[in-house]
Amino acid sequence: MHYLIVGNCAAGVNAIEGIRKLDKDGEITVISNEDSLAYCRCLLTEYVMRARRGEDILYREEDFYKKNRVNLILGKEVVGVDVADKKVILQDESFLPYDKLLIATGATPKSLRIKGEEKYGVFGFRRLSDAEEIIKIAERTGKAVVFGGGLIGLKAAYGMKKRGIDVYVMVKSPRVLSQVVDAEAAQIIGRWLQENGISIRTGIGPQEILGDDEVEEVILDNGEKVRTNLVIVGKGVMCNTSLVKGSPIKTHWGILTDDFLQTNIEGIFAAGDVAETTDIATGNRTVNALWTAACEQGRIAGMNMVEMTKRYPGSIGANSADFFGLPFISVGFVRVREEGYEQLIRSNPKEFKYKKVVLKGNRLVGFTAIKDIENAGVYTALIRKKVNISPVKDILLEDYLDYPKVRDLLEEKEGLRESISMQGDTIRIA
Amino acid sequence: MKRVFVDLERCLGCHSCMIACAVEHSLSKELFKAIQETPLPKPRIEVRTTEKGDSFPLQCRHCEEPYCIDACIAGAIRKDPETGLVLSDEKKCVGCWMCVMVCPFGVIRPSLVPDKREKVAIRCDLCQDRETPACVEACPTGALFFGEAEEFKKAAGKEGGKKNALLNSG
Description:
heterodimer; A: alpha/beta; FAD/NAD(P)-binding domain; Enolase-like, domain 1; 5-stranded parallel sheet; 9 helices; globular; B: alpha+beta; Alpha-Beta Plaits; 2 domains; two-stranded antiparallel ribbon; 6 helices; 8 strands; FAD (chain A); flavoprotein (chain A); FAD-bd_OxRdtase (chain A)
């Protein structure tokens, strides 16, 4: 049996482990278009701020591939899948055969779609190579402009500010994190970032990038000009689906997957930022391009490549970050813009504290917390397990809402992960 | 595999386990020095209460298939294949709180590295340097038990504490 994994990040690495759980002997090949061993993309922030060095952000030890008997091919791009002949086609026109295939090609930062974007000095914030170039320019000039106020843009801004670089964040929406938290929470976090020295301007986007070969100046869409040699783009990501174009593998936002993370073609699976799955909180089909989701999907897809036994319960939008010592967590559906939802909120903007739950009928579907984040996972479990929360509705916003208060509610439900219980114990939870 | 089990009926909610745990995970490992440390050492076991007001000591369950491992963006959490313990490498942790976000028991907590200002997520490590975890040793009523699940079932069953014999039993 030859397992082929395209992609060597969160989903790819966890798929290796998933396969090896059930099949010690099968042949595994991993092919990646990056040159480095798997690393923690989310730690580029720490890398930029000098809290971690390159070797510190490796996701697994260097001998991981050898230990798991993986044939690792780096720096090669897969450009096509021949479903009939069971092989993938590489850019150099060579090909690799497979018995089972996992597509874990991830995503690529969206571009700004403006003139001058190809100049040196415009980067996404996704690859180690991005971070290395960013550092080079920032060290020389001491200034950076970030377009986009999502988590990626803000994490890039935070990393650079901590390095001592002047950072200017420009957001087209009226506030930062407009896709992550509600308006009130966004304002609290935005104000905190500004108080810590990150300049944020809203309602502003880029129009054109000027310079010879290198970025020298940006024209904003209000006509204003900003001098900078470094532009970071945090405008979200697009699924890397180009390799399945022209193949019978179905795509929508991302590559469509079923309850076992298999695509519409038997023996071909998808996981991570490229995979479209069902969102647990909303029930909608979506791509939750998150590290956490990629790990779980990779592991489950890997196991299913060996034996179709492991059901994937669906993904959940869930983010957590800590900027300048202010932590926040947001899970599920929190940006309510339509009827049919109930919101309970406890807010203390002065102290940068916020807590909100979103209910649909007697179900918890969303949760946000800023500053006091202990027990956040208990809320996540209530969302995941679609628990009837009526018995604890009155104390949902209290800081003492913890596992013992909802234990009976959680345990009434069958586990989504059947055997999460501790060794030798009989608990069924989450 | 040895674990900490709780006989809920025996727990009086005295918090001795919490103090012993915080001291054990302090720099000095002595109570009167530990309380002067900055940051103040935090316990990794906490006595919480049920909706009825009964005491409920809670710490990392070392899950079979832990959510926290999937969630860790730093690859800092591993399950030891031999002992089954789920352990965080506090040197690798960057304090992003993803594990706090997904732990259904709420037993991973934000903290600071002793003597430093760095953020780190902490959890019960079953006192790797000790034969018996500090919390178990400190429990005056024998509510905490360290051993194999089977041993605990037997011990708890004998004394009629069956109802709550296994913490979280289904």
